[in-house]
Amino acid sequence: MKPILDLELLNTFSVVVEAGGFKEASGRLYRSQAAVSMQIKRLEEQLGHRLLERNNQGIKLTEPGKTLLGYIDRLLRLNNETLSALSLEPLQGPVHFGIPTDYAQTFLQQFIPRIRKTFPELVPRITCGRSRRLRELVGTGELDVAIVTGEPQYSPEKSLWSEALHWYGPAGFQAPGDEPLPVALLESDCALRDLAVSDLKRSGLETDPVLISSDMANLYSAVESGLALALLPESSVASSRVRPVQLNELPGQRSLTMNVVTASTLSPSFLEPLQDCMLAAARALIRQD
Fold first, then answer.
1. Handedness of CA 180, 182, 188, 189 (dihedral sign)
2. Burial status of residue 155 (CB atoms within 10 A of its CB: 0-12, 13-18, 19 or more)
3. Separation between Cα atoms, residue 46 and residue 37, nearest integer Å
């Protein structure tokens, strides 16, 4: 008789792959690194295959690991659909979601089909905006659940995905010598703008903000055209004409984490399956990028 797959172990495996390592995954799963490692070992023993190889850069999927990853989203989604179908109180009616403006288009393409399939009676309502504004709306109950940029001043939150954050410039960029460094920045009251301004202040470089915009796509265009440098998440970069810049005064690669926050008005029984739909969409988005 073939073994029955443990969904908790499958979820742990998926988070480890997405996070790029055991240490990073342990924070998202609220487990110790040893516990996460043990779960992966149990899964490998159950399947009779080594799924991950560790190296100095992190982890690498084996061929059986790649095969398993291709099935995980479907398995977890079917689990959620089953729980929803058997629920005595199906999730129905309007549920208000907050999505960061810069991720809205690509995320919704992955999220809406999943949410409609898992919760056919749910009516999604979407508000797009900056993370801090979305947090405020969750706090007042105007939004039921929102994706927000992780910031250290907030209590631990469930992570949906992380990605590299760099200062980018046009390919072949050279520092302008004695001239001010041209930069593109997001508008105020934005976590990414605060990081960029803090980096520039600590660098001691003289800068010239040649573009200020509420849209990250405009910052990317400014970089691609050669107008400016900008602090951008890796998923926003879609051209070989844009490269991370190497300036001693500016920090190197960092990690940008996107979390999910929920209002007290949302029934706890629906919280986990909703978050799982969002997580599946996020994983597809990152793999797509």
1. negative
2. exposed
3. 14
Token readout for 146 is 């929102």
Contact 168, 223 (CB under 8 A): yes
Are 138 and 145 in contact by the 8 Å Cβ rule? The answer is: yes
Q: How far is CA 232 from CA 167, 208, 274, in A?
A: 6, 18, 28
pLDDT at 88: 47
Domains of the chain: 7-84 (1.10.10.10), 90-162+257-288 (3.40.190.10), 163-253 (3.40.190.10)
Strand intervals (E) in 225-276: 230-233, 242-244, 254-262
Q: Is 57 exposed, middle or buried (0-12, 13-18, 19+ CB in 10 A)?
A: exposed
Q: Do 60 and 17 form a contact (C-beta atoms < 8 A)?
A: no
Decide if 197 contacts 271 (C-beta within 8 A).
no
Region label for 48, one of left (φ > 0), alpha (ψ between -120 and 50) or beta (otherwise): left
Report pTM. Answer: 0.67
Burial-class residue 230 by CB neighbours within 10 Å (0-12, 13-18, 19+).
buried
Close Cβ partners of 38 (under 8 Å, ≥ 6 residues apart):
none
**Which neighbouring-strand residues pair with 97?**
126, 145
Which amino acid appears at position 270 of this protein? F
Q: Which spans in 140-237 are helix H? A: 191-203, 216-224
- Local structure of 118: helix, strand or coil: helix
Mean pLDDT by 10 residues, the chain (289 residues): 79 83 76 86 89 82 88 75 58 82 86 82 88 91 90 82 90 84 91 94 93 93 94 87 89 88 74 77 64
